[in-house]
């Protein structure tokens, strides 16, 4: 397979693979090797090893299986997002594993991929995660958001007893605009286009939104936008 158009010319995206099935890791590795802007720099067979490797060898994106020995993917995600610098964590799952997807997003994952995704979708997802975008289609995002909100799901460990409106109180008007667009499932590129601002500015706004609201990922921020009634 040839590389996708629009490859990054800067430093390659550093990827960690965490899956206890060797065949899965082998297949993902072979696919990602076709992208000149992506390097698989570490592989782990369980969640504990993934956290140890990511702490020792900083990575941009961690692709983490949900079911692994020693430390499962959900527990690993919670530890990975606390690292500094922290990787963007994308959960690898099988179709229909909705409960675990929801729990992973609550833990701070940037999104999820189905294990049977095609090569181009996998490469695009890694690039999107590295760019700070959620690896979820708008349709899937809406489905997961509805499930989490219906179940009273938390949107991050820092929400405590504060209401959604209280957590948004420190945001500027522009940051609230960006948060509303996150809630609609828009990418950084789409947000920049709508607001007529550069990608760097969008990323700055997103980072400040996460810091001010105590959310771990743009998916958690999107959930908060829905809870606060910003996403429509």
UniProtKB/TrEMBL annotation:
Keywords associated with the record: DNA-binding, Phosphoprotein, Transcription, Transcription regulation
Domain of life: Bacteria
SUPFAM superfamilies reported for this sequence: C-terminal effector domain of the bipartite response regulators, CheY-like
SMART domains, A to Z: HTH_LUXR (SM00421), REC (SM00448)
List of residues that carry 4-aspartylphosphate: 65
Domain Response regulatory residue range list: 14-130
Protein name: Response regulator transcription factor
Species: Streptomyces chrestomyceticus
Keyword Phosphoprotein: yes
CDD domains given in the database record: LuxR_C_like, REC_NarL-like
UniProt signal peptide: none
One Pfam family here: Response_reg
Residue stretches making up the HTH luxR-type domain: 164-229
């Amino acid at each position: 397979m040839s590389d996708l158009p629009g490859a990054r010319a800067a430093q390659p995206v550093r990827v960690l693979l965490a899956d206890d099935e060797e065949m899965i890791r082998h297949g993902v590795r072979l696919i990602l090797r076709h992208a000149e802007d992506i390097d698989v720099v570490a592989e782990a067979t369980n969640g504990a090893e993934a956290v140890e490797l990511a702490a020792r060898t900083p990575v941009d994106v961690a692709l983490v299986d949900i079911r692994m020995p020693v430390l499962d993917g959900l527990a690993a995600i919670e530890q990975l997002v606390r690292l500094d610098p922290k990787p963007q964590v994308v959960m690898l799952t099988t179709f229909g594993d909705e409960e675990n997807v929801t729990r992973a997003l609550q833990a701070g994952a940037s999104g999820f991929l189905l294990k049977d995704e095609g090569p181009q979708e996998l490469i695009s997802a890694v690039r999107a995660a590295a760019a700070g975008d959620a690896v979820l289609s708008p349709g899937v995002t809406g489905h997961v958001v509805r499930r989490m909100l219906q179940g009273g799901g938390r949107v991050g460990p820092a929400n405590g007893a504060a209401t959604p409106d209280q957590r948004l109180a420190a945001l500027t008007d522009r940051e609230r605009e960006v948060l509303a667009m996150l809630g609609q499932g828009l990418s950084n590129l789409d947000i920049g286009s709508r607001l007529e601002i550069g990608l760097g500015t969008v990323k700055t706004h997103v980072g400040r939104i996460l810091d001010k609201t105590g959310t771990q990922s743009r998916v958690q921020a999107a959930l908060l936008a829905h809870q606060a009634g910003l996403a429509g």
